[in-house]
C-alpha cells in the first residue's frame, strides 16, 4: 500500500550535484524547499483546526459536567468541517478500506472539497452510510473474531460524532470504568485492582466476560441509553443509520436489530454508554462501590468484581 509520505518522496529527494548540473540542482533544492514549506503550512493549519475543535468541545464538556441531568438538544453543529478534518487525521493511514475501496491517501488527495461535501450532506440529512465489510481475525482460542470495516466517510463522520459525544459522556462514566476511555487502559484497571486488594479486606475476585457483546447488544436499548443525554434527534438518527447500515459478506448485505459492528469507530463509545447504564450506573451497597471495569482493546465488557 502506498503511503502519502512516499507519494511526495520524488519531489523532496536531493542529490549531490555535479558542477555541470548546477542549474538542475538548484531546481531540485527549490522544489524541496517548496515541499517542506507546504508541509509546514499544512501542519500549522491542522494544529489550528484541532485547537478550534478542542475549544468548542471544552465548552460542551464544561456544560455537561455542570448540568449532569441535562439532555443536549443542539449538537450537530459541532460536527463541523474542522471536526471532520480532525477525525480524518485521527484515522490510521494504513487501515483496510471498506466497501468503497477508498484508502486514507486517496481521500486526502482532495480533502477540502470532500469534507465540505460530506459536511453538507450530513447537515442536509442526505448522508447515507454504506454497509460495513465483514472480515475476520484469529482469536487466541483458535476461533475467528468478526470485524466490521466501515467505508472511509462513515469512519470520518463516526469519528467526529465520537468526539462530540465523548465530551458529554466522559464526565458521566464512573471512576472504575477503564475500557476504551481516553488515557486509560487495562493496565490501569489492573493497577486499581492491586490497590483495592492490598489496602482493604477482600473475600473474592470475580472475573467475567460478556460473550459476543458487539454481536448481540440490543440496538433499541442502546439508542434509548444514548437518549438519556442526547436530545438532538439528528445525532441519534445518525446512530440509527449506522446500526441499520448492515454488513456485507460474500456479496450479501445482512441487517439485524442486534449488534454494533466491532471494529467501527463509534462502537467502543456506544458500548461504554450501554454498559454504563446496564452494569455500572450508581447503585447502593458495596457491590456498586467496588465493581471495576477492565474492558480491553479487543474484549469489551471484561469485568472484575472484588468484595
Index terms:
13 helices; alpha+beta; 307 residues
How would you summarize this macromolecular structure in one to three sentences?
This protein is α+β, with helices and mostly antiparallel strands and about 300 residues long. It contains 13 helices and seven strands.
What can you see in these coordinates?
The chain is α+β, with helices and mostly antiparallel strands. It is 51% helix and 10% strand. The chain is built from 13 helices and seven strands. The chain has helices at 4-7, 9-12, 22-66, 81-90, 104-108, 111-124, 152-169, 186-199, 213-216, 219-226, 233-243, 267-280, 285-290, and strands at 132-138, 144-149, 205-208, 247-249, 252-254, 291-293, 303-306. It has a four-stranded mixed sheet, with no helix packed on it. It has a three-stranded antiparallel sheet with strand order 3-7-6. The N and C termini lie far apart (51 Å).
In percent, how helical is the residue content? 40-55%
**What strand line-up does the widest sheet have?**
2-1-4-5
Low-confidence stretches are: 1-31, 285-302
CA-based gyration radius: 23 Å
How much of the sequence lies in strands comes to 5-15%
- Count of DSSP strands: 7
Largest sheet: 4 strands, mixed
Distance between the termini: 51 Å
Question: From N to C, what is the helix and strand string?
Answer: HHHHHHEEHHEHHHEEHHEE
Amino acid at each position: 500500500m502506498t503511503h502519502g509520505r512516499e507519494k511526495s518522496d520524488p519531489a523532496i529527494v536531493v542529490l549531490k550535484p555535479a558542477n555541470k548540473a548546477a542549474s538542475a540542482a538548484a531546481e531540485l533544492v527549490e522544489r524541496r524547499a517548496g515541499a517542506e514549506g507546504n508541509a509546514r503550512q499544512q501542519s500549522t493549519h491542522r494544529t489550528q483546526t484541532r485547537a478550534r475543535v478542542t475549544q468548542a468541545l471544552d465548552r460542551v464538556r464544561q456544560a455537561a459536567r455542570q448540568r449532569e441531568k441535562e439532555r443536549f438538544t443542539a449538537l450537530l453543529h459541532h460536527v463541523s468541517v474542522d471536526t471532520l478534518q480532525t477525525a480524518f487525521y485521527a484515522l490510521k493511514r494504513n487501515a483496510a478500506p471498506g466497501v468503497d475501496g477508498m484508502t486514507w491517501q486517496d481521500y486526502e488527495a482532495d480533502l477540502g472539497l470532500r469534507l465540505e461535501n460530506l459536511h453538507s450532506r450530513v447537515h442536509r440529512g442526505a448522508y447515507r452510510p454504506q454497509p460495513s465489510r465483514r472480515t475476520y481475525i484469529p482469536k487466541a482460542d483458535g476461533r475467528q473474531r468478526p470485524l466490521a470495516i466501515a467505508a472511509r466517510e462513515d469512519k470520518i463522520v463516526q469519528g467526529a460524532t465520537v468526539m462530540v459525544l465523548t465530551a458529554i459522556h466522559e464526565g458521566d462514566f464512573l471512576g472504575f470504568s477503564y475500557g476504551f476511555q481516553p488515557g486509560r487502559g487495562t493496565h490501569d484497571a489492573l493497577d486499581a485492582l492491586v490497590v483495592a486488594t492490598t489496602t482493604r479486606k477482600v473475600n473474592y475476585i470475580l472475573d467475567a466476560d460478556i460473550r459476543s457483546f458487539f454481536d448481540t447488544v440490543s440496538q433499541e436499548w442502546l439508542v434509548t441509553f444514548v437518549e438519556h443525554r442526547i436530545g438532538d434527534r439528528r445525532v441519534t438518527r445518525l446512530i440509527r443509520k449506522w446500526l441499520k447500515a448492515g454488513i456485507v459478506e460474500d456479496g450479501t448485505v445482512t441487517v439485524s436489530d442486534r449488534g454494533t459492528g466491532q471494529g467501527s469507530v463509534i462502537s467502543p463509545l456506544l458500548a461504554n454508554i450501554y454498559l454504563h447504564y446496564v452494569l455500572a450506573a450508581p447503585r447502593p451497597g458495596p457491590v456498586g462501590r467496588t465493581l471495576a471495569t477492565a474492558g480491553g482493546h479487543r474484549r469489551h465488557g471484561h469485568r472484575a468484581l472484588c468484595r
